[in-house]
Amino acid sequence: MTPVTTVPFERLDLLVHGTPTVVLAAGDTAAPPLVFLHGAGTWHGWGFAEPWTERFRVLIPHHPGYGDSGDLEGLQDVHDLVLHYVELFDQLGLTADVNLVGLSLGGLIAARFAIEQKHRLRRLVLVAPAGLQGRGVAFEDVFCIPPEQLMGRLVHSMDTLAPHLPADPNDVDFTVDRYREMRTTAIMLWERPFDRVLPRWLGRVDTPSLVVWGEDDRLVPVELARCWVELLPRSTLVTFPHAGHLVLDEAPEASAAVARFCGTD
Amino acid sequence: MGLVDQAEFHFFHFFPYTDLPPDHRERPSLWVDFPNTNYDPKTGHELYNRYLSEMLLADKLGYDGLVLNEHHNTQYSMNPAPNLTAAALVPQTTSWISVFGTPPNLGYPNRLAEEYAMLDVMSGGRLRVAFPLGTGMEYWANAVNPATARARFRESIDIILRCWTEDGPQTYAGDFYTYRYLNPWPRPVQRPYPECYIVGTGSPETIELAAELGFGYSVVFIPRTAQLKVFDHYRERLAAHGHDPTPDKVAIGVMAYVAETDARAEEEFLPHVMYFFENALRTTPRYLNPPGYVTVPEFRKRIQAPDVHGSANWEDLVAINRIVAGTPDKVADAIAGWIEESGSSRLNLNLTLGDMPNWKVVKNTTLFAEEVIPRLRSKKEAA
C-alpha cells in the first residue's frame, strides 16, 4: 500500500532482527530525534507530523504487520514489538534523549517500551493510548465495532479522513490492507485487550510525560486519561475539544503541544 | 465396481432452532449476537426429542450413518456440544455415528480425545470424526484467538493423534498446550483410531493438513464446481504424501427431497431450502471473517467471491449447490452424477433442512431410503 504523505518523508528500508521494516524519516539528521509510533492503521497520513520536522528528526516506523513493514515471524504480544523497537533504536543509534510519541496502539507500545527502556527517553507523549481498562469506564472493544462504523468512530469530523479514504468503500486493496493490520492487532490483543503490565509497572517511568486526548474520542474515551495520569508519576494531561481519537489529525494545537512539550528544556 | 456401489448414505441433521421471532428479518445476523432470549427451552426440549426421533428413524431405515456437527451462539444448530447428542444416540442405534465435529482448538485437546474415545468405546467402534476449524462465527463466541486459530488447530490435532497412537503417559510441550502427563483413559476401540476427516472451505492450508495426515476431506460453503477443483487438488496432495486417494476420502454434501412428482417435491422442499439459506445461514462478513481467521491472500480471494450467507434465489442455489427435489428417478440420477463427478463414495445427506416439519422429514427420509437408495444400488447391478 501507499501511505499518503505530502512532505519530505524519505523512506528507509531496514531489516530489524529479520523483519523488513520501513521507517519514514524527515527533518535535519542532527536535530533531536522524535519517534512516532502509529496506531492500528497506517492509512490516515502523517500530515500532523510535518510541523515537527522543523525542530526534530522525525522518524515514523511502520510496525511489523502494518503498512509497508513485513510481518514479525512468531509475533505473540506487544512485548515482541517492544523488543523490535529496542533493536530498531539500536540500529538507528537512538540510545538517549529520544522523544517518543505514541498514538492509540502506538501509545500502548510506547508506554511498555518506556517501562523497560526509559533511559533512552527524554520525553514520553501518549496520545489517546490503548491498553488500560480503567475503573468504571465502559467502552466498546475495537474488534466489535462494525468496519463500516469504525472510520467514523475515529474522528470528530469525517472531513478529516476524506482525503485518505478510497473512492470506492469496497476497494479491495484498501480492505485487504486494513484486514492485515487488524490481523496483526488481533494476534497481540484479541485474547487480552487490556495490558496486564501497565498497572503494575508504569509507575517506574519517571520520564516527563504528556498525555494528549481528544475530548470527543469515541474509540478510547477521554475518561481514561485520568487513569494514565495517575499511573505516570511525572505526567501532564492536555485535552482538545472538537477532536476525536485521531486528535493529532483534527487539532493542529494538539500537534503543536506535542512539539512544544518535546522541545522544552 | 463403480463408485455408486461403494457409496455410503449418511443422514445429517443440523438440529436447528426454528421458532424465530417475527422481526428476525431485521437482524443482519442470526449468529453470534442474536440474543439468546429468543431461545425458549420448552421449545428446545420438544425439538431435541423430535430431532432425535428423526435420527433414530434414519438408523432404522438402514442409512449407513448419522452425522452431527457443532456451532455456537446460533439458531442454526442446537448442538454446541454434539458429543452429548452422539452419546444419546449410541445405545439406540446400530449405524455409524459421525461427529463432524468439534473444533479441537476451542477447548482442550486431551478432553476431546477422551470424549471421542468414550463414544467409540460406548458404541463398540461406530464412531467417525471430523475436525473442523470452525466457522469465523465460532471465534466470536469462544475465547480463542482467530488470528492464531490455525496454528492452534494443527497442534490440537497433533495432541489428539498422540493420545490415540502412542502409549501414555507422555509429555507434550507445544506452543498452546503443555501436558505433563498426557495419558487419557479410555482409548478408542478402533485401532489406531476412528476414521478422521477434516472439514474445510477449500483453503490450501487445510487441504494440505488433511493430505499430510491422511485424513478424509469434506468441504462446505463453496460452490459445487469449486469443490471439484478442491477435491482434485486434495487427492493430488494426498498421493504426494503417500496416502491412497480412495473414494471414501472425500465426503460430499447433498440436499435432497423426494416426492411423488418433481413439482410436488420442489413445492414441498423449496420453502425450507430458502429458509435455510436466507435465515439459518444469515450472518455478516465481519462475523464470517474475524481478524486473522484466514491468511491475507485468502481474505483477498474471499472478499471477491459470491456471498452464500443470507441471500439466495432457488435457481442460483440449485446451480451452485448439490440440491435436488423430485421423483426417486430424478433424485437418484442427480446423485449418481454427483458421485461420479466428485469421485466420492461418502454422502452426507441433508434430507431435513431449516424449518421443515416432522411429517416432511419422515416422508422424505423414508422415500429416500426405500426408493432412492435401491435405485442407486440397481444402477450398479445394471452396469
Would you kindly provide a written description of the structure presented here, covering whatever features stand out?
The complex is a heterodimer of chains A (265) and B (383). With 265 residues, chain A is α/β, with parallel strands linked by helices. Chain A has one domain: 3-Layer(aba) Sandwich (Rossmann fold), CATH 3.40.50. In chain A, 30% of the residues lie in helices and 19% in strands. Chain A contains 8 helices and 8 strands, in the order ββββαβαβαααβαβαα. In chain A, helix 1 packs across helix 2. The model of chain A has no long low-confidence stretch (mean pLDDT 95). Chain B is α/β, with parallel strands linked by helices and 383 residues long. Chain B has a single domain, classed as Luciferase-like domain (TIM Barrel, Alpha-Beta Barrel), CATH 3.20.20. Chain B is 45% helix and 15% strand. In chain B, helix 4 links the parallel strand 3 and strand 4. Chain B is globular and about 60 Å long. The mean pLDDT of chain B is 95.
Number of helical elements of chain B: 14
Classified by CATH, the class of chain A is Alpha Beta
Q: Main β-sheet of chain B: number of strands, strand sense, barrel status? A: 8 strands, parallel, barrel
Coarse structural class of chain B:
alpha/beta
Mean pLDDT of chain A: 95
Number of domains of chain B: 1
Largest β-sheet summary of chain A:
8 strands, mixed
Distance between the first and last residues' Cα of chain B: 9 Å
| Low-pLDDT ranges of chain A | none
Low-confidence stretches of chain B are none
Describe the structure concisely for a colleague.
The complex is a heterodimer of chains A (265) and B (383). Chain A is α/β, with parallel strands linked by helices and 265 residues long.
